[in-house]
Amino acid sequence: MELKIKVNFSFSKLARKIPDIVNEVVKQYTNDAEAGTKEAIDKGVLPPLAESTKAKRRSQGNNSTQVLFDKGNLYRSIKAKPNGLELLKYGYAHHEGFAGKHKISRKFITTTVEDKQNINERLSKMISSSLRKK
Questions:
Q1: 133 burial level (CB within 10 Å; 0-12, 13-18, 19+)
Q2: CA geometry: angle at 28 spanning 25 and 29, to 5°?
Q3: pTM score, two decimals?
Q4: Which of 23, 24, 78, 113 is spaced 20 to 30 A from 58 at the CA atom?
Q5: How many CB atoms lie within 10 A of CB 72?
Q6: How confident is the model at residue 134 (pLDDT cuts 50, 70, 90)?
């Protein structure tokens, strides 16, 4: 009895395509992260502003109580770039939290749930098609 085994996938083909797949996923993720991050700010980020922050803004003629949106500089700085998401340095500090008496972090750098699902589906399809021998 002779046994024949056929292979319908190619790891070497996948290996050749990995750099393109990674670049495409990073590009899609950063574009989606720009939209998701701005959407998070628009919807409101917790914790809310402290009363002292609201008072400081009012004293400067700004009645906005929107978190992470004083003059809009941070919001306008959020841009998708080829190698990742770009934003003003203090935005990352807000996301991670400031050191001090009370460490307050506002996790706002994100994509939307729908975007994450789309990225995962697209990644899965790219890997599957790259594995196929033909």
A1: exposed
A2: 80
A3: 0.75
A4: 78
A5: 12
A6: low
